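Below: protein 1.
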Amino acid sequence: MPKNEVEQFLDEENINYQSYKFSSEKIDTEETPIFKTLVLKGNKTGPTIALVPLNSRLDYKKAASISKNRKVGLPPMDYVMKTTGYPHGANTPIGIYLHHPEYPMFFDQKINNYQKVVVSAGELDKSVIIAINDLIALIQPTVADLLVDKS
């Protein structure tokens, strides 16, 4: 299968990764969890990107505070496509960083609990498994508590 732009970018940056397809491959998500990329719209910053564990809920108040917005929210899908170039379900922190390094990027602090994570590679059903240290060194996000507290 030909490499897409995210994989090519990682190759150019000499960053190790493993291609992963949800439909045909299985991994231990306890050891290598899946993180989803959320495109938010802040009232001050505009596009704001959050990377959070797949089965977690973003705390909008925390995200607003950390991103220096009064409020943030999930915008309409046409805004997401126009802003990132990726359709819903294929947003990737790597591809967004490649095309829009100016967008504020925030990773939930739980990412530090793992050595590797799965993130979208910018296409539906295509992801990459990448070391946390490499992902953070490449994108240089703010890492903070972004999740709803479980009570």
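Below: protein 2.
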Amino acid sequence: MVTARQLAQLCGVSVATVSRVFNRPATVSAATREHVERVARELDYSPNESARALSRQRSAMVGLVWDTDHRRPSWRHPFLQDLLLGLKSALSSHGYHLLMLATSDDGRSRTPGASLADPVAYVNMTRRHQLAGLVLIDSGTDADAFSVFAHSGLPCVALDVALSGPRATYVTSDNAAGAAEAVRHLAALGHRRIATITGPRGNAPATARTEGYLRGLAEADLPVRDDLMVTGDFYRESGFVRMRRLLARKEPPTAVFAASDEMAVGALLAARAAGLRVPGDVAVVGFDDIEVASLVDPALTTVAQDKRGFGTAAAGALLTMLDGDETPPPVRLPTKLVIRDSCGSRR
């Protein structure tokens, strides 16, 4: 088995440099890092994880706090699949592994819709196992519980929750700007009765997308109509049910902005069930640009989020904290309107 000292001699660098390549790669020049990594691969060298954990006072594991209680459907949302791939890939390239955390709570002690049962237990688990840091995914009502992590002093990055603390930051998309662009696009097509199916109340992205919807109406000089605003939960069934409610109005909308693609697909199905044509009778726009958006008929116009980039940005923010004392500012990723077939002109 090749040791770090032998690898250093073969590469013509110090043992400390080899250690930095595998522990703090950002502190080593790209040329040196690539040289050491190439020789390490040729020799099938891998650093001793136990020794690394002792020297850094932490393991090469990053904890993922994500409540997947069976009563919460967030674990199966398609958006998260690509996000997790981006997160795992970025961490792996820097020698870290992703570990999903769970406490002994099985969900039975918690009422449906409640937040994490005991965030302190997760903090204690992180310290006990000397995890390098945490990535936090909100399952819908965890934002308040996440404040425990923010003030724990542990390096942590939240996804779509505005987290701040001595070693805490967050990554989100520009949800409001994306929603406003969608509404402006519908208004430019001549639509005047533009409805929205929002995400769940209290959810940060859902709130921002509603704000963007209202901003888009104002920018198009269109009135806000309470009867054209209904609340969903980001999932397909709620999109179907809420769309039926909108279509039953005395003056139904000619266009609908759904705050997720899942709900937008439900809205498409409800319009079809009512004998309406999309986009001939009613236009539909979603948010996320998940895979199904381009597969449904008609293909869905949607606001695209950078799903893999979301995970990569979260990993980058966490690695910045692990490589030094700096806590990076929040990251707000841009969105992009992807125009497909589910929108049509009213002119």
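The domain at 61-173+307-333 is CATH 3.40.50.2300 (Rossmann fold).
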